[in-house]
Amino acid sequence: MSGPLGDSGGVISSLAQADEIEALSAIYGTDFHTESIETSTYSVDITQGDKTAFLQVTMPPDYPATSPPVYMLSAPWLKGPKRQELCGYLEDLYLENAGESIVYLWVERIREFMVEVEQEKEEQEEHELSVTLENAVLSEEPETEETGPCPEVFSGEIISDRKSHFQPHLAAVNSHAQVRQVLNKLYENRKVAAATHNMYAYRLQPPGAPSLSQDCEDDGEDHAGRRLLHLLQILDVMNVLVVVTRWYGGIHLGPDRFKHINNSARQILDSCGYITPSPERNKNKKKK
């Protein structure tokens, strides 16, 4: 049984729906469609770049006061986990704005998601291209040194933080040719090749060599390679290549990412015996 309060709530919802429909029609123009006045069903065509989506909503009588609209999302390019992710965003938006008109927020969140998906695709394609080009350059460089078998590659423990993962790799190398061998071997691993960044640094001075040779690579993570090289210099390690692989999880870590890169490199240098405790540290341990 509905009393005056229930009737009042229905009137308020009806007025709110009318205002929302008028606003949506003004904002989206020919992309906004009335599917059925009887069932209060409406739809919006959403286009972003070369992708399109179709959002259909049916507004129950008590929307937006107490109930959410029932929606149907059609997007052929959106499947599996990505579709679930977007639906989760839409549900969260409703919960954050319960009692308010939600369709405009849904449409714009879908549009933002389409942009994010396109950016992720472009970044992945750019990374794959850079890896391909790097491998091509390495394979085309003239071999002036005897290579022999590829040095053994050691991989360290993974450090994880806010969905980003960092894993170090190390190999003892005595020539630029061996550096290329190790990098090529690492890139044969599909997970490593598909990672967001593979930054590395190495220092070479084989016995009898007249001078030191060292270099580094950021692989898109600004200054990361230089920081790795600086670590090798501070520790005064030689004839070693250190690679840190990062899989980006979608959450910016800020300066913490450099801490994890540094700790990953230190971890594997230590586990492979490249870090020797200082005499002072040993003395302190003995005193204890």
Automatic annotation (TrEMBL):
It is found in: Cytoplasm. Signal peptide: none annotated. It comes from the Eukaryota. GO terms for biological process: GCN2-mediated signaling; regulation of translational initiation. Gene3D superfamilies: Impact, N-terminal domain, Ubiquitin Conjugating Enzyme. Residues 19-117 form the RWD domain. SUPFAM superfamilies: Ribosomal protein S5 domain 2-like, UBC-like. It holds the Pfam family Impact_N. GO terms for cellular component: cytoplasm. The keyword Cell membrane does not apply. The keyword Ribonucleoprotein does not apply. Its main location: cytoplasm. Coiled coil: none annotated. InterPro entries: Impact, Impact_N, Impact_N_sf, Ribosomal_Su5_D2-typ_SF, RWD_dom, UBQ-conjugating_enzyme/RWD, UPF0029_Impact_CS. Keywords: Cytoplasm, Repressor, Stress response, Translation regulation. Belongs to the IMPACT family. PANTHER family: IMPACT-RELATED (PTHR16301), PROTEIN IMPACT (PTHR16301:SF25). This is RWD domain-containing protein.
